[in-house]
């Protein structure tokens, strides 16, 4: 890239999402800018990434050998091919500094190589105990066992490496969205700490869950992700507004909506409760 | 995943794209099924992947240190961070067998580790000399120097590893689409070999390029990718059909359309010509 272009472009900050704008501010004013609305805006934007990742995974059939530990053997006993691709790609990204960002959570945190890039000053918004909240094992389980069989077609086209790369993409965007619950919890705590402090001290998960639950918002989220799946997963033709392909989607909007309702939203709230229970540590 | 689910799902083949359906057939009937229409269908589907990958990259600002060789130093002198991430991720995917598929082309083919998975019998559709046609150096150049500055916002949010991962995604889908020109050329050659053989023997690139050029098709492609960029890059709201966000897109449809016209289509035709010149070897 031309140095001049880089220099010109780098002069102006971009406004994009809470993670990329609000959070980039100096620590001192992060608290002011962290609002429930800004956090929700980011969650809304992440829905698109999730829908895209599922549509891209659905271009491949199931490709079962990707998940079969007996399919291949490699020194280091990685289990299945998808485990190898996820572990080793996470290792590459760890060296490049991905997991220095508190919004990113590896699926295989053990033996991850350290970052080899200069440290970046991510703002400290969360309680440091946030680092102990990681539900990726559960996300791995529900993605492969609950979601995947519902939105990919059966079959085997041999593209297991590409399939695993697409799975990693799905896992990463789901993980990012679900662990964003830490920020949701933080902003809710800041807004209404008087309500949250007693159940936190009493370790009353039930009351915390009730406080965190907004049925109307959850309903709207489910409706919106279904709409996104139908818009982003449609066949697009030029000069053809016929209804020929109407109702044909690359990933069933009802599956995405149901997965959100059954897993994404509940797991996000699990993260919120786990984070809150450590909020006063 | 439940073994029973896998067994049930694996019983049926999925129908998806030429690479995943037509090409998976036994060698004997591939010739019959490889048609200009099926190849074009695959190219159309790949447009969506390209638009998705650009929208996902555009979530991050430019993040110039990702491309600056002086930003970090690591044993092995990888150059910039994006080079490290691309090289090392390609190495992971190579071990998992990605580049055994003749439709996939690495950006750093030197020193790529061999596949460590059992060989998959990809159908032999192309002339074996196809392996010598790889325009990834040019794709790398135009992606970083021509396209990237046009669709990402200026700024720096520190997420260089994620940025590089998104760049790799863009590069891979562009590479796949452009090298699909080999299949386009093969099917055109089969359909009209009498027209192609004389200029191939005469090494007459100009005539070959004229034979391969269909201005009406190219115009339709450019129009369709712009439409896809506007549909997939819109803000989606539930119960809000106001025009508030009309015309606001995550990636400018005109930029995508122009990039297709200026680079994607011409590079695809370059691949077609290069392949045809070796077609009779």
TrEMBL record, chains A, B:
GO terms for cellular component: cytoplasm. Keywords: Amino-acid biosynthesis, Aromatic amino acid biosynthesis, Cytoplasm, Isomerase, Signal. Residues 160-272 form the Chorismate mutase domain. Pathway: Metabolic intermediate biosynthesis; prephenate biosynthesis; prephenate from chorismate: step 1/1. SUPFAM superfamilies: Chorismate mutase II. Residues 1-17 form the signal peptide. It holds the Pfam family CM_2. It catalyses: chorismate = prephenate. GO terms for biological process: amino acid biosynthetic process; aromatic amino acid family biosynthetic process; chorismate metabolic process; prephenate(2-) biosynthetic process. It is an enzyme of class 5 (isomerase). PROSITE patterns: CHORISMATE_MUT_3. Its EC number is 5.4.99.5. It is found in: Cytoplasm. One of its GO terms (molecular function) is chorismate mutase activity. PANTHER family: CHORISMATE MUTASE. This is Chorismate mutase. The lineage of its organism: Eukaryota, Viridiplantae, Streptophyta, Embryophyta, Tracheophyta.
């Amino acid at each position: 890239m031309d140095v001049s272009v880089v220099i010109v472009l780098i002069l102006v900050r971009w406004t994009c999402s809470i993670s990329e704008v609000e959070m980039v501010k100096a620590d001192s004013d992060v608290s002011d800018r962290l609002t429930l609305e800004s956090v929700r805006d980011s969650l809304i934007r992440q829905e698109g990434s999730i829908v895209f990742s599922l549509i891209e995974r659905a271009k491949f059939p199931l490709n079962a050998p990707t998940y079969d530990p007996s399919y291949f053997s490699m020194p280091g006993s990685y289990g299945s091919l998808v485990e190898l691709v996820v572990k080793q790609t996470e290792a590459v990204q760890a060296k490049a500094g991905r997991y220095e960002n508190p919004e990113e959570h590896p699926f295989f945190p053990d033996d991850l190589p350290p970052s080899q890039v200069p440290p970046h000053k991510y703002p400290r918004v969360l309680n440091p105990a946030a680092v102990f909240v990681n539900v990726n094992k559960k996300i791995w389980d529900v993605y492969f066992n609950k979601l995947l069989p519902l939105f990919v077609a059966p079959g085997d086209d041999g593209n297991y490496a590409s399939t695993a790369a697409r799975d990693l993409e799905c896992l990463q965007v789901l993980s990012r969205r679900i662990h964003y619950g830490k920020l949701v919890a933080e902003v809710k705590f800041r807004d209404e700490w008087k309500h949250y402090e007693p159940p936190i001290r009493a370790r009353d998960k039930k009351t915390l869950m009730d406080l965190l639950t907004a049925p109307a918002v959850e309903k709207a989220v489910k409706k919106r992700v279904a709409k996104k799946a139908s818009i982003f997963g449609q066949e697009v033709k030029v000069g053809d507004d016929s209804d020929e392909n109407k109702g044909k989607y690359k990933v069933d909007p009802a599956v995405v909506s149901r997965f959100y309702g059954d897993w994404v939203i509940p797991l996000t709230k699990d993260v919120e409760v786990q984070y809150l229970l450590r909020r006063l540590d």
